[in-house]
Amino acid sequence: MLTTIRRSYAIFVQSLGVLRQDKEILLFPILSGLFTLVAMAGLIFGGVVTGFFQRLAESGDRSLEGNLLGYGALFVWYFVSWFIVLFFNVGVVACARIRLEGGDPTVADGFRAARENLKAIVVWALISATVGLILRMIAERSKLIGALIAKFLGAAWAVATYFVVPVMIFEKSGPRESMKSSTEMISRTWGESLVAAAGVGIMIMLLGIGGLAFPILGFLISATAAVVGLGVMVLYWIALAILSSALTGIYRTGLYLYVKDGRQIPGFDDGFARTAFATKGKATAAAWTAAG
Predict the structure, then answer these.
(1) 143-169: buried (b, 16+ CB within 10 Å) or exposed (e) per residue?
(2) How far apart are CA 214 and CA 49, in angstroms?
(3) What is the pLDDT of residues 167-183, one digit of tens each?
(4) CA nearest 95: which of 106, 81, 79?
(5) Distance of CA 258 to the CA centre of its chain
(6) Domain presence at residue 37
């Protein structure tokens, strides 16, 4: 456990060091969040104005029409949200690669990469929305068992497609080739060391738990202070989400460059590369050694 935390801390700190050189990368997750909120508001407004929600309520969620309308609306939302996330993630990854290869990226570089890969983003958003809808349908069919199966399949899908975005935009591969390449890169290089990929997420989670201190301390002072503390906690969590998105994009790009080219990643020390990106065989051996 302590080894995992130390590794996660190293991943977090070194990714943060790269981000400090190009703080403008934070603009992409900020815009991603804002556009997602605008899209949500727009879809809700459209559903109310056109009477779609009323028709959905009148149809009932167990009728064929209700199911078709409900799943159709869900698919649209999945597609729109995925498109927004992917568009700005491409910007993060593109800028991260320029920095990690010794360049000095600008926001314009990120937007240029997103525009140049617009078709691929649309296609992958459609695929992601379809997979998301299928998982949702599985989860709703069998309740607890369906939810567990959906979570397992969702996790497997997330792992298999971990490198899809960098492969898609750097190698100009189609969806099938990108997913195949992503899966092969994970199988060949990580194997049982996938915990390293969660390094940023683990540290963000720990920092997020620390945010609970704001409303708790406020509650000890007064009801007003508790409300203020709650607001501060929410803002703190939003800031962490933005930071997490940027750091994850940087880290994932570094992983891609390391796995693809087998070379040291600028901004990350050599010891980090040897431990965080252990091959399947080495990871297995290390696990058995530690157990013995």
Answers:
(1) eeebeeebeeebeebeeebbbbbbbbb
(2) 40
(3) 999 998 888 888 888 88
(4) 106
(5) 20
(6) yes
pLDDT at 109: 94
| Integer Cα distance of 274 and 253 in angstroms | 17
**Count of CB atoms within 10 A of residue 26's CB?**
17
In a domain, 290, yes or no: no
| Torsion angle (degrees, nearest 10) of CA 8, 13, 19, 25 | 40
Task: Determine the structural domain holding residue 210 and report its residue range.
Answer: 2-285
Among 74, 70, 86, residue whose Cα is nearest residue 123:
86
Place of tokens 């690669």: 97
Check pLDDT > 90 for residue 230: yes
Count of C-beta atoms within a 10 Å radius of residue 187: 11
Tokens standing for 135?
């998982």
> For residue 265, what is the DSSP state?
P
N- to C-terminal Cα distance for the chain? 16
Tracing tokens 């058995």 back to the chain, one arrives at 288
What interhelical angle do 27-49 and 223-261 show, nearest 10?
Answer: 110
Q: Is residue 270 part of a domain?
A: yes
Residue 259 in tokens: 């796995």
What 8-state DSSP symbol labels residue 24? Answer: G
What count of other Cβ atoms lies within 10 Å of the Cβ of residue 112? 13
Gap between the Cα atoms of 152 and 86, Å rounded = 23
> What pTM did the predictor assign?
0.82
Q: What CA–CA distances, in Å, run from 15 to 244, 247, 278?
A: 10, 6, 18
Total count of domains within the chain = 1
What the block records as the tokens of 29 is: 């997750």
Residue 234: pLDDT band by 50, 70, 90 thresholds? very high
